[in-house]
């Protein structure tokens, strides 16, 4: 990531100082912040809306961009519809869950030990904290070390004024200094922690409710004294299974009630309640049933579910297709069939090529998806994107002229700045490996090249490009090619290995270096370059 950041910043400075419109004398040089990628630079794991329409977004990230430049944060940020805003100074570890009560109090859970009031001052908060709009507070504070719960929180759900937590924890620290055994699920009534019977025998991943009943999902086999595989219901006094137990081998990551009032369960399983169902199923109060063919993939795990008045939305790591549909990690179910949401989300971060959806939230008539990705539908959007029913958009406006992965080479010509690397998008456009910046927008170079670019040099307005690609503009070039501003040209038969450096002298000679042993002339004779 350090290399990528440095080189993208270099592009910005180059455009400002040698672009089509030079700066006037006396104007201080500065970096052009338009090149930051809109969205969240990291993993988004939780999204919640308050009654003012603000979104609280949590995960594992320390940098966000809304088109007006990068903002440093600690794992949580507020989106007010126009800008990202810090939430105090954030927390010192990943945020996995966010819930907001009727008074606007924001509850945040994850794997952290401190909540920062500002950039410097912090409050001890073990895996759970409360934000009142101005300050952070721990839950169950006795002293600087005794508060919260002893391990990570994975989900938060508020029901009838009680804040319920699910996660990896086994004990909760009471305000009187005592420790309560809770085993993966607990409730906070505003004054003390509550034990829900004896809890579960394994971690709980998700919570939801219907009327006064709390539902829990995870990888457990028992809930309190009841045998309950993966899903259990709490009526305020005891745990019970659903009428048809999901059975062994089921791990539930997400639960939601759909517009049909059926309970939908998503996770990692092939069968549930004796029915074949790939990673997602619904409970109608009598039996379990699959959703068509389900998410048919060996890695088709469902991580998130949400619902509005028409659809159930599913997000996860399922790849490319549901039946004949192209979906890419997110799809919607209308009660009868699946439909795609453009081409879903794609592209990872931190060198990961594979993205996924970690969390979903329906806010008014829009769906927000968070996770690890760099493309949503046809636009560039890092970590989080908004679906309006027809198309995806990033959070923020303007800017977004950056590149979504490694930049390895820059060359400057009168007709633009040429940038090469291993990226797949430039700004909001799908342009891979090589792009030209004209001072205000990105352009594909001819029909582009077929693989990574590692070297660019410009001589007499001829752009020489080298890398690992075999074709440029549809012609065979073998790792090195020349662009004349209109068309691509091969340099003989190219070379037999990666090109990493190119230089040209005043006499028109071009020098090429890299990981090759042979160069081929136009007449197909070869030169030993070992």
Describe this structure in words.
With 530 residues, this protein is mainly beta. The protein contains 1 helix and 57 strands. Strands 1, 2, 3, 4 and 5 form a 5-stranded antiparallel sheet that branches. β37 (356-363) and β38 (366-372) form a beta hairpin. The longest helix is centred in the N-terminal third of the chain and has 17 residues, at 2-18. It is elongated and about 85 Å long. It starts with a helix and ends with a strand. The model is unreliable at 1-25 (pLDDT under 50).
Structural class: mainly beta
Residue-averaged pLDDT, rounded?
Answer: 87
Give the overall silhouette: elongated
Q: How many strands, which pairing sense, and closed or not: the largest β-sheet?
A: 5 strands, antiparallel
By oligomeric state, this entry counts as: single chain
Strand % is over 45%
- Helicity, as a percent range: under 10%
Q: What's the count of strands?
A: 57
- Low-confidence regions: 1-25
């Amino acid at each position: 990531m350090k290399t990528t950041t440095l080189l993208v910043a270099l592009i910005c400075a180059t455009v400002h100082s040698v672009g089509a419109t030079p700066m006037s004398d006396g104007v201080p040089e500065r970096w052009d912040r338009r090149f930051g990628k809109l969205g969240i630079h990291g993993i988004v794991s939780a999204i919640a809306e308050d009654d003012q329409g603000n979104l609280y977004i949590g995960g594992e990230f320390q940098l966000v961009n809304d088109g007006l430049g990068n903002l440093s944060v600690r794992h949580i940020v507020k989106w007010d519809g126009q800008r990202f805003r810090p939430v105090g100074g954030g927390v010192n570890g990943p945020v996995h869950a966010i819930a907001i009560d009727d008074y606007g109090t924001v509850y945040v859970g994850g794997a952290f030990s401190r909540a920062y009031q500002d950039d410097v001052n912090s409050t001890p908060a073990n895996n759970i904290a409360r934000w009142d709009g101005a300050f952070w507070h721990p839950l169950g504070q006795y002293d600087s070390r005794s508060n919260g719960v002893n391990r990570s929180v994975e989900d938060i759900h508020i029901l009838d004024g009680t804040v319920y937590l699910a996660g990896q924890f086994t004990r909760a620290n009471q305000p009187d200094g005592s420790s309560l055994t809770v085993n993966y699920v607990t409730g906070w009534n505003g004054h003390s922690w509550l034990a829900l019977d004896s809890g579960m025998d394994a971690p709980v991943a998700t919570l939801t409710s219907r009327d006064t009943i709390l539902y829990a999902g995870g990888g457990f086999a028992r809930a309190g004294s009841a045998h309950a595989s993966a899903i259990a219901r709490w009526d305020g006094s005891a745990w019970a299974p659903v009428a048809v137990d999901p059975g062994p081998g089921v791990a539930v990551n997400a639960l939601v009630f759909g517009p049909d009032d059926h309970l939908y369960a998503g996770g990692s399983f092939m069968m549930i309640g004796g029915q074949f169902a790939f990673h997602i199923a619904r409970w109608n109060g009598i039996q379990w049933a699959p959703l068509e063919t389900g998410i048919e993939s060996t890695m088709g795990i469902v991580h998130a579910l949400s619902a509005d008045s028409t659809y159930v939305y599913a997000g996860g790591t399922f790849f490319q297709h549901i039946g004949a549909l192209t979906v890419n990690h997110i799809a919607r179910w209308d009660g009868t069939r699946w439909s795609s949401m453009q081409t879903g989300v794609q592209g990872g971060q931190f060198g990961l090529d594979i993205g996924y959806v970690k969390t979903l939230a329906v806010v008014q008539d829009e769906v927000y998806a968070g996770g690890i990705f760099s493309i949503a539908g046809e636009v560039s959007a890092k970590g989080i994107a908004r679906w309006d029913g027809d198309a995806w958009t990033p959070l923020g406006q303007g800017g977004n002229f950056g590149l979504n992965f490694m930049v390895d080479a820059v060359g400057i010509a009168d007709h633009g700045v040429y940038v090469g690397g291993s990226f797949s998008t430039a700004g909001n456009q799908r342009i891979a490996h090589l792009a030209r910046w004209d001072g205000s927008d990105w352009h594909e170079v001819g029909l582009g090249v077929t693989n990574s670019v590692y070297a660019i040099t410009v001589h007499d307005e001829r752009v020489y490009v080298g890398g690992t690609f075999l074709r440029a503009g549809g012609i065979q070039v073998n790792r090195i090619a020349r662009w004349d501003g209109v068309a691509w040209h091969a340099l003989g038969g190219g070379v037999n290995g990666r090109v990493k450096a190119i230089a040209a002298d005043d006499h028109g000679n071009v020098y090429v270096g890299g990981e090759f042993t042979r160069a081929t002339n136009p007449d197909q004779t070869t030169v030993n370059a070992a």
